[in-house]
């Protein structure tokens, strides 16, 4: 992405939320709850996201025509309106948040009130006007795909309402990892705590090392090939599958240092006539999901062709299901004992 | 947001992660989301028994103890037949031994740590103690044979109840011992406080949230990296060591303790650092790690409620400034501390602040922020504009958007100003320095001054740069200075009910600007501005600052 894009992107969310950097989520919600615009503006202005949904719906009018569609987490109602415009018989949008009040006004102003029913409430509790739906559309993805994601709600909706031959838009999510050279930023984010105005801030450093960073990574920082670690097929995946433990193997494309692993995801709408795909990886156009950076405690010195392997484990925190506990083990098995490295790092997204 | 200030060098990587997380993952990410908003479980970091390493949870810590130090708590618990309180004692015994330098404490028998003195936590808020019941439960679950499940469930329920009772007793015991020790209340340890936060009204909730929000790294990182801010405090303290030498200093809202440490390094006899967020635990560690533990005392609590170890202080230092200066209302606490503790003639650091306003004209920003909703992927979303002008925005304002020299609307002499004076309605007058098609709104910011004595004054209408030239420490958060994490506050004018008119250079605009707390005791602020340029361009509007 260009710097101008980046500036725009960060500017969008630079509202009341910004002072709340590092804030507790309940609190962020509290403080941003009035700031409807910031969040929805950022979502809608994420062109990769919104355009992919639009295309997957508008290019598939034959699939949507006369169908009953459920929009899980409808927000401002944009996906519901796409579906209605594409000829759906009826669209049901469900959202917990009070944004639904605005969504109703928006739907009315656009003359789609008779096509779209908007319900405020939990998916598990609302009463749908149709016993079954033909299509579920949802934009449920969070950072690191699963952080504060609505996937479990989508799965509930699927199991409860989707007709036997129903379709899900999107229906596939694939996670990737790669390793990056990131000395400068690691120094800025982690090394910073070694000397703060002449003082030793190591207690803060320990915490910083367990916090994954959601950040935009430049393509040139990639030292290895990406490695696909897991694919979720939304037609079949279960909530239990969202806790997983998977191996990865990364092969260096050049001789360099490795400071961090990064993770991202791709999304597929394969139910489309012509499949639609977008990526949130460092090689692709900017999205608000950016990438997730996991700094390693070690710095690995790799040469072209060498491999780093390990296991990535992800599970919801026992106490707070919204938080993710992520463990990444790594082994850089080389003859040279000065470069050999092996370790395991724990992270919590909260 | 220090690093994002160097936006040309570090384009994207420097927005703190949690800023990003604010925007969340979906259209529905609003106050309620999809799941119940549960009271956030404030998990304390787990400090290792044999080192100062912080662990994500008890299990990880115990694993390390077992592997690195051959200390297997679960096994010892089992071998010695320890009950809950015994295990508490064991942990405190090990901590006290390690603290005394013995890395392999003798745990061969129960008698080694039978003394009730070991009920007293060695570490304040020791997360290990509070999570021991988890481990015990886990143990029980693990040893549960599937075939006896039903019988065991009943047993476990009883066991759990017993543990909960013990735990409550333990909390009470701790509370009592701390009360004796400190002769002060420590509300955190009240039984059941962690278990379920009572339903409070929104105002109280906001208050609690305010304190918890400061316990994360990122906000402290962004503040420490705001060099305009931190350098100013450092420069004043280090360049005026004679003021601090042998003095007693109070740091209100100390955060990670950086200002306290500046003062200690400058020769203060004693520094008392107060903060009501979890960060105080990190501050205590940091102070200790820097060998300043005998000078700096960290106290957790609200300044209005804690008992300080001294009657009076010579200097109060505080970084209390919020958006538009007074958002978050932390300044009220600083005034309280001043009136309660500052010795006659004592020094406030900083000593003066001024609030400024200027007319704002930025058609591009209005287009992207407001007009955007006119057509979103072919749909009208005017509904999203409904309250868009009711909230003040915090943004970096380009200097080109400032259409006149700013005017001071409030001067705050920190030694004398009262809380009542923070609710006000003041006149202002500005003269446009350029033609504008539309007066889009108002930009607000503040300057901060560090004068060396309680009697010092700063000239009216002075800007930070003037005082810097005279050799004083001062900084501005305005658009013409280096960017700070405070940015500027923008109040957009709503033209849905009136037509906007172009204004010419030289046009005088007069008005009144007011600050009002949303409710008594609230940290939320309402801003009001009335303005008049001529017969057609005039108005009055109110904004909230969330």
TrEMBL record, chain A:
UniProt GO MF annotations: histone methyltransferase activity; protein-arginine omega-N asymmetric methyltransferase activity
Gene3D superfamilies: Hnrnp arginine n-methyltransferase1, Vaccinia Virus protein VP39
One Pfam family in the UniProt entry: Methyltransf_25
GO BP term (any one): methylation
Protein EC: 2.1.1.319
InterPro entries with a match to the protein in the record: Arg_MeTrfase, Methyltransf_25, PRMT_dom, SAM-dependent_MTases_sf
Originating organism: Penicillium ucsense
UniProt keywords, alphabetically: Methyltransferase, S-adenosyl-L-methionine, Transferase
A cellular component annotation (GO) from this entry: nucleus
Location of the Protein arginine N-methyltransferase domain: 171-333
Protein's UniProt name: Arginine methyltransferase
PANTHER family in the record: PROTEIN ARGININE N-METHYLTRANSFERASE, PROTEIN ARGININE N-METHYLTRANSFERASE 3
Domain (Methyltransferase) ranges: 69-142
UniProtKB/TrEMBL annotation, chain B:
EC number annotated for this UniProt entry: 2.1.1.319
Keyword Nucleus in annotation: yes
Segments of skewed composition (Acidic residues): 24-43
Location relative to the cell: Cytoplasm, Cytosol; Nucleus
Substrates-to-products reaction catalysed: L-arginyl-[protein] + 2 S-adenosyl-L-methionine = N(omega),N(omega)-dimethyl-L-arginyl-[protein] + 2 S-adenosyl-L-homocysteine + 2 H(+); L-arginyl-[protein] + S-adenosyl-L-methionine = N(omega)-methyl-L-arginyl-[protein] + S-adenosyl-L-homocysteine + H(+)
Gene Ontology cellular-component annotations: cytosol; nucleus; ribosome
Biased composition (Basic and acidic residues): 11-23, 184-201
Top-level taxon of origin: Eukaryota
Any coiled-coil regions, as ranges: 146-173
Pfam families listed in its UniProt record: ANM3_C2H2_Zf (PF21137), Methyltransf_25 (PF13649), PRMT_C (PF22528)
Annotated Protein arginine N-methyltransferase domain residues: 352-535
Domain Methyltransferase: 249-346
Enzyme class, first EC level, given as a word: transferase
Location of the region described as Disordered in the Swiss-Prot/TrEMBL record: 1-43, 182-201
Keywords: Coiled coil, Cytoplasm, Metal-binding, Methyltransferase, Nucleus, Phosphoprotein, Ribonucleoprotein, Ribosomal protein, S-adenosyl-L-methionine, Transferase, Zinc, Zinc-finger
Domain Protein arginine N-methyltransferase 3-like C2H2 zinc finger: 77-121
Alphabetical list of InterPro entries matching this protein: ANM3-like_C2H2_Zf (IPR049482), Arg_MeTrfase (IPR025799), Methyltransf_25 (IPR041698), PRMT_dom (IPR055135), SAM-dependent_MTases_sf (IPR029063), Znf_C2H2_sf (IPR036236)
Stored PROSITE patterns: SAM_MT_PRMT
GO MF annotation, one: protein-arginine omega-N asymmetric methyltransferase activity
GO biological process: methylation
Name this protein carries in UniProt: type I protein arginine methyltransferase
Species of the source: Penicillium ucsense
């Amino acid at each position: 992405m260009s710097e101008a894009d980046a500036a725009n992107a960060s500017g969008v969310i630079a509202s009341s939320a910004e002072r709340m950097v590092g804030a507790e989520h309940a609190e962020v919600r509290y403080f941003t709850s009035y700031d409807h615009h910031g969040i929805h503006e950022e979502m809608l202005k994420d062109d990769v996201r919104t355009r992919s949904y639009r295309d997957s719906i508008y290019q598939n009018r034959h699939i949507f025509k006369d169908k009953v569609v459920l929009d899980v987490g409808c927000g401002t109602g944009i996906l519901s309106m796409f579906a209605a415009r594409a000829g759906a018989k009826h669209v049901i949008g469900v959202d917990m948040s009070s944004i639904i009040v605005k969504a109703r006004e928006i739907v009315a102003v656009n003359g789609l009130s008779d096509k779209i029913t908007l319900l405020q409430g939990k998916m598990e509790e609302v009463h749908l006007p149709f016993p079954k739906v033909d299509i579920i559309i949802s934009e449920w993805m969070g950072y690191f795909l699963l952080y504060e994601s609505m996937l479990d709600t989508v799965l509930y909706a699927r199991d409860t309402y989707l007709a036997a031959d129903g379709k899900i838009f999107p229906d596939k999510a694939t996670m990737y990892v790669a390793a990056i050279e990131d000395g400068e930023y690691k120094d800025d984010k982690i090394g910073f705590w070694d000397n703060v105005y002449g003082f030793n801030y190591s207690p803060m450093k320990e915490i910083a090392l367990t916090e994954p960073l959601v950040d935009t990574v430049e393509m040139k920082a990639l030292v290895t090939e990406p490695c696909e670690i897991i694919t979720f097929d939304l037609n079949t995946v279960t909530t239990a599958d969202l806790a997983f433990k998977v191996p990865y193997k990364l092969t260096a494309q050049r001789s360099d240092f490795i400071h961090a692993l990064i993770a991202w995801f791709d999304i597929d709408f394969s139910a489309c006539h012509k499949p639609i795909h977008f990526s949130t990886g460092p090689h692709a156009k900017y999205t608000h999901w950016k990438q997730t950076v996991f700094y390693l405690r070690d710095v690995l010195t790799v040469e072209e062709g060498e491999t780093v392997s390990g296991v990535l484990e992800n599970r919801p925190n026992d106490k707070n299901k919204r938080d993710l506990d992520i463990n990444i083990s790594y082994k850089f098995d080389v003859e040279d004992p000065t470069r050999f490295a092996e370790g395991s790092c724990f992270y919590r997204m909260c | 947001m220090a690093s994002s200030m160097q936006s040309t060098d570090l384009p994207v990587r420097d927005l703190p992660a949690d800023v990003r997380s604010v925007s969340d993952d979906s259209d529905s990410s609003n106050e309620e989301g999809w799941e119940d908003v549960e009271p956030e479980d404030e998990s304390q970091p787990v400090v290792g028994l044999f080192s100062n390493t912080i662990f994500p949870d008890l299990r990880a810590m115990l694993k390390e103890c077992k592997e690195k130090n051959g200390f297997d708590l679960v096994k010892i618990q089992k071998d010695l037949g320890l009950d809950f309180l015994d295990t508490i004692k064991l942990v405190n015994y090990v901590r006290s031994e390690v603290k005394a330098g013995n890395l392999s404490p003798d745990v061969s028998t129960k008698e080694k740590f039978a003394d009730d003195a070991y009920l007293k936590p060695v570490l304040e808020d020791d997360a290990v103690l509070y999570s021991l019941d988890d481990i015990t439960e886990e143990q029980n679950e693990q040893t549960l044979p599937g075939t006896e499940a039903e019988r065991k469930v009943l047993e476990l329920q009883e066991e759990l109840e017993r543990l909960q009772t013990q735990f409550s007793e333990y909390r009470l015991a701790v509370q009592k011992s701390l009360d004796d020790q400190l002769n002060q209340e420590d509300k955190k340890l009240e039984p059941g406080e962690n278990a379920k936060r009572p339903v409070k009204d929104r105002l109280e909730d906001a208050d609690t949230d305010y304190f918890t929000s400061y316990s994360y790294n990122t906000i402290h990182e962004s503040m420490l990296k705001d060099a305009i801010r931190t350098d100013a405090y450092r420069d004043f303290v280090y360049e005026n060591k004679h003021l601090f030498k042998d003095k007693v200093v109070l740091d209100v809202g100390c955060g990670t303790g950086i200002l306290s440490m500046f003062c200690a390094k400058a020769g203060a006899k004693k520094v008392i650092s107060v903060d009501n967020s979890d960060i105080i635990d990190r501050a205590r560690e940091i102070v200790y790690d820097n060998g300043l533990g005998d000078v700096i005392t960290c106290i957790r609590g609200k300044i209005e409620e804690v008992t300080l170890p001294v009657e009076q202080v010579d200097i109060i230092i505080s970084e209390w400034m919020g958006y538009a200066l007074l958002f978050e209302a932390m300044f009220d606490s600083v005034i309280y501390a001043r009136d309660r503790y500052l010795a006659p003639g004592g020094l406030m650091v900083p000593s003066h602040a001024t609030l400024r306003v200027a007319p704002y004209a930025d058609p591009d920003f209005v287009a992207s922020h407001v007009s955007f909703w006119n057509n979103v992927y072919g749909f009208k979303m005017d509904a999203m504009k409904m309250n868009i002008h009711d909230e003040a925005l915090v943004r970096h304002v380009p200097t080109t958007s400032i259409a006149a020299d700013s005017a001071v609307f409030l001067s705050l002499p920190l030694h004398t100003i009262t809380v009542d004076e923070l609710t006000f309605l003041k006149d202002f007058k500005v003269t446009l320095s350029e033609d504008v098609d539309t007066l889009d709104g108002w930009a607000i910011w503040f300057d901060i001054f560090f004068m060396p004595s309680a009697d010092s004054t700063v000239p009216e209408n002075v800007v930070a740069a003037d005082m810097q030239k005279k050799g004083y420490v001062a900084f501005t958060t305005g658009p013409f200075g280096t960017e700070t994490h405070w940015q500027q506050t923008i109040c957009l004018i709503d033209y849905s009910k009136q037509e906007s008119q172009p204004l010419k250079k030289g046009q005088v605009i007069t008005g009144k600007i007011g600050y009002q707390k949303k409710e008594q005791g609230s940290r939320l602020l309402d801003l009001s501005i009335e303005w008049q340029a001529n017969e057609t361009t005039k108005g009055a509007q109110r904004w909230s600052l969330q």
